[in-house]
C-alpha cells in the first residue's frame, strides 16, 4: 500500500445502535478493572500459596509485577489516541503487527477472557456453597449456585455499563475495606512480635521460590488493561483511559504488597511460611479473627463471594466489548454487535457469552468434575497464560507501530517502554509456563494440554485471517479499524507498505 494511501474502508453498519457515550469517568473505569482482578479473592484465596512458595519475600513479587505492568502501560496508553476501535489488545496488535496477527490476537483474547470468567464460576460456587452452609445452614448443589450467578451477571450486564460501574464501585469498596481493616488491626497491634522489614531484604527477594510466585502475582492483575475496552463509553478517553490504567495498576501493586506484608507480620516473619503450610485456605480468616474479631471473619467470608461476583460482572462486560468490536469490524456476524435500544449494552454478545458459560458449567457438572480443582484451575490456566501472551504481543505491537507505521508520533519513552515491557513480559510468561503446576495442581500431561490451548488458538486465528484475506478481503480490511467510531482517531503518518 503506498505511503500516501488510506487503509481500506472498514465494513459499514447501519441501525445497530451505539454504546452509551461519556458515561464513565476515571473512577468508574478504575472500579471496572480493579473489580475484575477480585482483590479480596486473590488475596485470601491465592496469596497464602504465594507465601508458602516464595517465603516472606512474596509481597515484593506483587510490587515487581506492578512495576512491569506500569512500564507496559506507558507504551500501551501512548498508542491509545491512535486506535479508534474498542477492541483493546486486538485493535492494538492489528495496528502494530498487521491484521493477520490482530485477528489471531482477537481469538486468543476471546478464549482467554472467557476461560478466566467461566473458570471462576467454579470458585464462586465453592465459596457461596460454603458460606450458605456455614452462615445459613443451607446446602445447595454447586451447579445451581454457579448457574444462578450466571443469570445475575447477565442481568447487570444487560442493564448497561453505568449500572455495572455503580454495582462494582460498591462491591469493590467493601472488599478492599475488609482487607484494609485487617491490615490496620495487625499494624495497630504490632503484629506477632513487632513489625519488621524482612520481606524486603535481599535474602527474601532472591530466594529460590520467588520465581514461582510470579505465577500468582501477575495473575492478580488480570484485566487491568481493559480500561481501553471502554474507550467509547468513557468521558474524554484520551485522558481518562490512560489515567485510569495507571491508577488501577498502581493501586493494585501497592495494595497487594501491603496486604501480604501485613499478613506476614500477623504471624511473624519467622513463622509465616509455617502458618501458610498449616492452613492455606484459612490463613487470612485466622488473621482477621485474631486481630479484629470473629464478626470480621464472618463478614470476610461473605465478601469473598461478592468479590468473585464483581469480577464476573467486569469480565462479562469486557468479553462483550471484544465481541462488539469484532462484529463492528465485520469479523463476527453483524447481529452479535447489536446494542440494546434502551440500556446501550451489547446484549446479544452477552447472551452468547452466557450461553457458553452455561454449557461449560453443565458439562463439568455432568462429568462429576470438582468445581475448584477442575472447573476453576483447569479452565482458568489457559486464560492466565493467554493474557500474558497478549500483553507481550501488544508491547511488541506498540514498538512496531511507532517505529514502522507512525514515526511522527514516536517518542523515546513510548518505544523504550514497549521494548522493556516486551522483554519483561516475555520473561514473566516463560516463568509462568515453567511453573504452571503451581496454578493447576495437575499432571504434566494435563499441563501440556492446557498450555497448548494458547498456541492452538493463535494458529486457528491466523488461519481464519488468511482465509478472510483470500475469500472476503472487504471483511479482512475492517480488522482493527473501529467501524463504530464516531470520531476518527488521530491521523497517522503511514511509513510502511506492509499491512499483513
From TrEMBL:
Any matching Pfam family: AA_permease
GO biological process: transmembrane transport
Topological type in the membrane: Multi-pass membrane protein
Region Disordered, annotated ranges: 480-500
The UniProt record lists the keyword Transmembrane: yes
Subcellular location: Membrane
Domain Amino acid permease/ SLC12A: 30-472
Transmembrane segments annotated in the record for this chain: 29-54, 60-80, 101-124, 144-161, 168-188, 200-224, 244-264, 284-305, 350-369, 375-403, 410-433, 445-468
Keyword vocabulary terms for this entry: Membrane, Transmembrane, Transmembrane helix
Coiled-coil ranges per UniProt: none
GO cellular component terms listed in the entry, alphabetical order: membrane
InterPro entries, per database record: AA-permease/SLC12A_dom, APC_superfamily
Protein's name in the database: Amino acid/polyamine/organocation transporter, APC superfamily (TC 2.A.3)
Amino acid at each position: 500500500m503506498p505511503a500516501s494511501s488510506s487503509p481500506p474502508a472498514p465494513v459499514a453498519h447501519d441501525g445497530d445502535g451505539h454504546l452509551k457515550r461519556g458515561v464513565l469517568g476515571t473512577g468508574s473505569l478504575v472500579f471496572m478493572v480493579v473489580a475484575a482482578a477480585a482483590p479480596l479473592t486473590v488475596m485470601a484465596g491465592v496469596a497464602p500459596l504465594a507465601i508458602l512458595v516464595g517465603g516472606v519475600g512474596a509481597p515484593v513479587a506483587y510490587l515487581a509485577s506492578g512495576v512491569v505492568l506500569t512500564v507496559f502501560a506507558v507504551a500501551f496508553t501512548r498508542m491509545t489516541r491512535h486506535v479508534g476501535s474498542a477492541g483493546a489488545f486486538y485493535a492494538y496488535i492489528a495496528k502494530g503487527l498487521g491484521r493477520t496477527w490482530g485477528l489471531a490476537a482477537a481469538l486468543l483474547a476471546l478464549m482467554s477472557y472467557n476461560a478466566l470468567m467461566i473458570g471462576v464460576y467454579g470458585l464462586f460456587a465453592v465459596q457461596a456453597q460454603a458460606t450458605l452452609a456455614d452462615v445459613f445452614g443451607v446446602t445447595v448443589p454447586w451447579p445451581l449456585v454457579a448457574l444462578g450467578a450466571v443469570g445475575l451477571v447477565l442481568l447487570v450486564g444487560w442493564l448497561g455499563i453505568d449500572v455495572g460501574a455503580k454495582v462494582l464501585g460498591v462491591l469493590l469498596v467493601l472488599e478492599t475495606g475488609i482487607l484494609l481493616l485487617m491490615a490496620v488491626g495487625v499494624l495497630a497491634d504490632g503484629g506477632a512480635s513487632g513489625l519488621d522489614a524482612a520481606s524486603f531484604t535481599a535474602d527474601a527477594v532472591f530466594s529460590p521460590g520467588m520465581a514461582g510466585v510470579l505465577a500468582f502475582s501477575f495473575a492478580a492483575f488480570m484485566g487491568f488493561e481493559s480500561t481501553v475496552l471502554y474507550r467509547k463509553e468513557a468521558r474524554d478517553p484520551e485522558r481518562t483511559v490512560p489515567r485510569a490504567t495507571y491508577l488501577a495498576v498502581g493501586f493494585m501493586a501497592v495494595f497487594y504488597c501491603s496486604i501480604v506484608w501485613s499478613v506476614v507480620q500477623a504471624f511473624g516473619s519467622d513463622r509465616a511460611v509455617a502458618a501458610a503450610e498449616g492452613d492455606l485456605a484459612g490463613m487470612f480468616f485466622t488473621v482477621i479473627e485474631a486481630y479484629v474479631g470473629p464478626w470480621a471473619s464472618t463478614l470476610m467470608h461473605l465478601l469473598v463471594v461478592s468479590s468473585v461476583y464483581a469480577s464476573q460482572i467486569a469480565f462479562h462486560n469486557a468479553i462483550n466489548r471484544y465481541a462488539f468490536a469484532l462484529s463492528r469490524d465485520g469479523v463476527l456476524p453483524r447481529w452479535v454487535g447489536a446494542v440494546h435500544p434502551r440500556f446501550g449494552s451489547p446484549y446479544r454478545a452477552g447472551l452468547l457469552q452466557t450461553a457458553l458459560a452455561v454449557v461449560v458449567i453443565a458439562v463439568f457438572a455432568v462429568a462429576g468434575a470438582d468445581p475448584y480443582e477442575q472447573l476453576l484451575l483447569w479452565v482458568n490456566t489457559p486464560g492466565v497464560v493467554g493474557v500474558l501472551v497478549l500483553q507481550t504481543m501488544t508491547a511488541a505491537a506498540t514498538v512496531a507501530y511507532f517505529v514502522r507505521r507512525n514515526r511522527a508520533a514516536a517518542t523515546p519513552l513510548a518505544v523504550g517502554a514497549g521494548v522493556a515491557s516486551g522483554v519483561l513480559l516475555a520473561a514473566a510468561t516463560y516463568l509462568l509456563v515453567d511453573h504452571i503446576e503451581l496454578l493447576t495442581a495437575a499432571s504434566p500431561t494435563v499441563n501440556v494440554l492446557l498450555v497448548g490451548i494458547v498456541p492452538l488458538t493463535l494458529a486457528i486465528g491466523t488461519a481464519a485471517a488468511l482465509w478472510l484475506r483470500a475469500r472476503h478481503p472487504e471483511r479482512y480490511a475492517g480488522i482493527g479499524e473501529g467501524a463504530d467510531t464516531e470520531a476518527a482517531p488521530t491521523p497517522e503518518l503511514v511509513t510502511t507498505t506492509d499491512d499483513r
